[in-house]
Each structure stands twice: as structure tokens, then as C-alpha cells.
User: Fold these one by one.
Assistant:
Number 1:
Amino acid sequence: MQWPWENFRLHRMQQEGVVIMYHTIQWLAKFFTRIFAGGASFSMIVLFLIVFVNSVRRYTIGKSLEWGEELPVFVAIYGIMFGVAWAYMQDRHIRFTMLIGFLPARLTRYLYMVVDLIMVATGALLAWSGWLFVTRRGGIEASGLISLAKNLKAATGWDQLIWLGYMYPYQAAMVAGGAMLTIAAILKFALRWSADRSPNVAEEVL
């Protein structure tokens, strides 16, 4: 025979476990959000500096850096990938809210959870297709960067730097972007799922 107070204690322990799990996932979400935000910010800073220095050189001495045209494009792609994951973690991606405005909060959260699962699959497919693209076409020389890579290799003696002159690290932005989007969608799904199981935190997450 199980006493009522034992049922209450078991229920309370379950609720506390859910709350602990929610706050753990929340900590992970904040950690990855900082990484995504930092990556996007760093990419934009590097992009600005390259374009700025290249512009100054062009209009002062009439010469621009050989790699100053191509590298900013690749840096921008990485910045976009970081930004996509960052926006997803903050629920600031583009979406239509006309239907959602008429739904109760709990049903809205379920709808968002379905979207999260779709985005997990989308991110995984993006990473996988990016990996296939890298393995098949990554060996192509980056025309504007191969000379820089050879000069860095000669100056440092590090043979690995020659990779900067090929498309491998730049096409890998698709792999990184897909992986980051998958992580972001998993974390958002976990946050909504754990919030739904605990009335104490359900109000915090849609």
C-alpha cells in the first residue's frame, strides 16, 4: 500500500528533476548562444578589417591585396552561418505569426517543437550535403588565396597552411552551419519540452 504523502513526494521529486533538467539545458543554450554570437561578431569584424584595409590600399597606393577580394566572401559565409544559429537560439528567425496569434500558448509551444524537429533534420541534411561537397570539390585551388597560402607555408615552415589555398576550409562553412543549426534546434526543442513538463517554467518558454 502506498501512502498519499509518498505519491506527493514522488511527484515533487519528478518536478524538481524536470526543473533541474530545464536549467541545465538553459545553461547549455546560453553557452552555445555566446559561441554563435561570438563567431558571428568575429566574422563581421574580420570582414570589415579586410575590406577597410583593402580599400585604403587601393585608393592610396593603387594596389589591393590579392586575397582581399575573395577571402571576405568566405568570411561572410561563416558569419552568416553563425548568425543563423544565433538567430534560431533567440527565436528571431523569419516566420509567419498570423496563425500562431490565435493559438493558446501550450499549442503554440507544440507547434514550435514540431518546427524544431524539422530544423534538426534540415540542419543535418545541410551538414551532410556540405560534407559531400567538400569531399568532392574541396581540392580545387582558391585562385585568390593560393599565393597567400604558399607564402605563409614558406615563411612559417608549416605545411598544413597550404590548405588555406584550397576550397576545403571555405566550403566547410556548409558543414559548420548545418551542425550549428542542428545544435540550436535540438536545444530549443529540449527547452520547450522540459518547460512543457513543468508548470513552474512553462511561462518562460514558448
Note: The longest helix spans residues 4-60.
Number 2:
Amino acid sequence: MSDLVAPTNDFETRVLALLDNEQAAASSWIKLLNEAQRAEVPEADREWPFLAQEALAKVGNVDGGVELLKWRAEHIPPEYMTDKDWIKAAEAVAGSNPLLRVLVQEAGFGQRLAARECVRRFRLLRSLQPGVLCLHPTWGFGVVRKADSLYKKIEIDFRGRPGHGLAMKVAAETIERLEDTHLLAQLHLDRDSVQQMVKEAPADVV
């Protein structure tokens, strides 16, 4: 019995320390939760992730809140969280930000989607900031113009379709965000260099 109580008490002490530290990063919480799960501490699947989410929300740490939300979707057994629990967790991340609250709705939380997919959509939609490069299966390469929380659309400049409004739900399902290393992104950012590379070392152009 004492062997079980001692580790739990140690984790509880660490949880309290993180709660007292307003600067505690999401990574610190995730490290603790991972260790507690490996030690089979029940609170690691239930109370402590909730406390961590609330603590990050309280100080307005949106990036950390999203990081923790992703961890919960990947590590918490589905039966431990209801749709309402996921909505509450996502809304805690969004706080009072009107755009983020719309993104929570459009990402599908509480709409019979797997939590992992809802989090993926939320992270994608949040990342579609002005200037971000993306790819649509029908309209091809595009540059994000803005996110419209009123009409729940992402405006994207596609070739031949400037300022095209894509419903956020549709964008979450179909848009791929391109990194700067993607060939289409490189063509957009520095076409001359890519064309020169094609001439000099075509095998390197992937």
C-alpha cells in the first residue's frame, strides 16, 4: 500500500507546484502527465489534465493550451471524456477570443467527430493566418488572405480565384498548409531560384 501512496503523493506535490507557478509551460504539465500515466496514477487521465488546461487558460497561454489539448486527444482514453468535456476544454483554450471560439465550433467539437480529428482541424484553422501558403485539392495553390469569424469563412487567393471564401468547416477538411520547404511554396517565394535550380540540378528539385 505504501509503495502506491508514495508515488501518488509525489505527483500531487508536483501538480500543486505547477498550479502555483503561473509561468509553468505546457511542456512541464505534459511531462508530469506522461510520467503519472506510466506510473498508472488514475488522476493523470482525469482530474490533472483538467487542472492543467484551466491553469494555462487562466494566464491566457493559448499556444500551451492547444499543445495540451493535442496531448489529451492522443493520450486520454475516449471513454474518459464526453463531448461536453471536449467542448469545455476547447473553449477554455479559446477564452474570450471571438475568432477562436468560432474555430472551436467549426472544428467539430461535440459533433460526433473523434477528438483527435477535432484538434487537428482546430490547429489547422488557427494556423491559417494572413500570408500562409496552402493547397486545395481542386483549386490548387493559394495564399490565405484572412479569417472571417462573422461569416465563418477563410478567404484565400487562389490562382484565378482571388479572395475566394471557403467555409471554415470545408477548409478544415480539405486545406493543406504548406511549409516554406514545399516546392510550390518555394516557387511562390523565390521563383527565380527554383528555376535556376531546375536548370543546374534538376534531380534536387523534389
Note: The mean pLDDT is 90.
Number 3:
Amino acid sequence: MITQATTTDLNSITSLHLAELGNTPNSQVGRWLITKLYTLILGRKDAQIIVAKNQQAIVGVVSFGYDLAGLTKAISRDLSMVEIIRIILALLTKPGALISQIQHRLFMYQAYTYLPPKYLGILTICIDSAHQGHQIGSKLIAHVFASARANHVPVFVDTYLSNRRAIRFYEKNGFHRVYQGFGNVLLTKSVWNNYFFSLSRSWHSS
């Protein structure tokens, strides 16, 4: 079952995120940060969290938003000084995570030049490893496409260049690369591909 997440799902969503995306800088800061981030996403009108459930157990999650810059600012404003210090100290004890975070910031600074004024950005997507290979990811991404289509915007997502499995998944679902650098890659998909293809054919035939 694919459904919109609620506050009662937050604990399970956090657990799934840490189990499947435990190598990301945010995950390495601690469970408290992941819970806080998903809580903030859930509380915004311009963002959504969709979950896949199998007998009430959450086996997949995707989060996305329409104003990633605004969401980032909201998160920064919501963090207390104590929490900011906790994040800094956690990253300082994990040099790999700190370098990855810096690289991603540099990457996004460049990637923003490839983003249109309005778009849908995928924040996170993860599937329980025990349930991978059952089209759960494709079903979740279909909900993202439906939302983007309803709002007439393209979809963008970024991931590590080393995460070949994720890149294959996105490309299998119609994404193509638009920029890569600093160990990351930005991909996009227009939800009107068929429309533009038919329109292009009509131009050439006229």
C-alpha cells in the first residue's frame, strides 16, 4: 500500500532511513537529526513524504519538496545553537562525513545553476533491503511523477556518483544526467516527455 506519511510513521521512517542510508552525513550525525528533518518536511505544505507499507510495516519511503532552498532555510532556522554544535562536533569526529558534506554543499552551489525557477526535488528515497526488487521504488517514484505532473514542473534528484545502483534506478525510471561534480550527480526527468516528443514531431512535419 502506498500512502502519505503521518506523524505516527516518523519513528519507522527514521529507522528505515538509518538502516538503508546510514552512510550519509546526516545519518552519521545521529538519529535525532534524521527524525527532526523528517518532522520538518512533514510539517510543510510544499513538501511530502510518501511511504510504502507491507502489512502496516513501512518498507519504502520517498520525500520531496517544491522549494528546496526554502526548506533548507527553514531547517537552519529551526536548529538551536546547541543542535548546531552537536552537528559540528559529530562531523568533526567523522572526517569522511565532513568531507562529503562539504563536497555536497559545493556541488549544490553549482547544481543550482541547472535548476529552473520551479521544480520538484526528491530529498530522500530508500527501500527496505529485504523488499528490494519488488518495484516498490518505481511505485513510490510514480507518485512523485504524478505530483510533478499535476503542478507542471520537472523532477530533479541528486546522489553520489559512487552510488551506481541509485543512478541505474533513476535512469531506468526515465531520468538523465544534467551535471556532475564534487563526487555527486544531478539528474532530471520531464513528466511531459511524450508530449514534447509529439509536439516536436508536429513541428517537423508542418
Note: The longest strand covers residues 57-65.
Number 4:
Amino acid sequence: MNSSAFRIHRSLCGSLWGDHSALSIMDITLNAERFFERLERLQTDWTSHKSTVWGGADALCIPLGAVGDEINYSKSSSFHLFLFGYEFADSLIVITRNNFYFMATAKKCGMLEKDLVGKHDTIKVHCLIRSKDEGQNREHFNELGNVVRKGGGKRIGSFLKAEYEGNFIPSWLRFVDQSQLEKCDIAPSMGLFLSVKDETELVRFF
């Protein structure tokens, strides 16, 4: 998808979920039903085709760096729009079976705590608050690393060729490089998954 197509995709998501451009972050309400419906669809696709399409990933990691004024297509941004209808810049998502981990500032975590935490019987949403204290952030990184290793896991799927603005996501990537976790590229897998539109997305094209 090129930048022009991504601009259209972003516009469509804004229409589907509401125009957020004039709202502060705490004025936005996330659609819990749609969030969990789409997350369940991702989990089903991933666990059903883990060893083939998804490269044997034991966990999925979707980092999104700082977002500037220029609109550039990235699978991370596209995934945020698909799942939230909103881009949470400078945030980190780690997904394991029936668990969704989100690390970002307190204000961004507050949105998920308000609208998503405790709203599903099976999938648990966990928020980790990013701090100015690098030691605290490192503790959260260790927690996420242990989440991947739980049950004997060691392989984390992410977008290995992507470049990220800011300092937060690069610090996470350095942590992963220094850990004993294996990495695999899920960019093609995620692109294929996002190319299959659900009814809510398709209705905007007719």
C-alpha cells in the first residue's frame, strides 16, 4: 500500500470510528465490541497458521513509534487503525494467546483501562505505563519478555525491516536484541491478514 492509499485507508477508518481530529485523547471512546471481534479474528488466524503463515511466532509484537505530520504507510499504523480506529503513537503492543499487552503513557493506558480492560470473558487486556524512568521501563520490558517465554515460547514476531521514530521503540528493540528471544518477520503475514476486510470495512466502499 502506498502513501496515497494509506491516506484513504486512514480516512475510511476515521469515518468508521468517528472523526477524532478535533478531540483530545481522553474524549475518544474505543469500540470494545469491534476491538475484541477483530482481535479474536487475528488470534484465530495466527494460531491456526502459526507454523506456516506466521513463522512460528509464539507472540506478536506491534510497535508504533512517534508519528510526525507526514503521512507514511506502515503496517503498525494500519494495525492500530484496524484495531482501535486511532493511532497510539509511541506505544508497544504484545499479543499472546488470550492476552493483549499495551505499553504507553499513563494517558493512553487510561483510554484502554476505561474502555477495554475487563470487557471480555476470555481475552485479558493488560496496561503497562511507560515512565520517564528507564529502569521502570526496563522492568516492563522484562515482564513482556517473560510473557513471550511463558509456556516455553521463545519466538517473537514483529516488523523487522521497519524503522521507528523517537526513543521508546528503539529502546525496546535493543532490549529484544540483547535478550535470548528469537525474532521472525510477520510483515507479510500481517499484510495478508489486513487485506481481508470485514463487513464494517467493506461497507465504506459501496
Note: The longest strand covers residues 59-64.
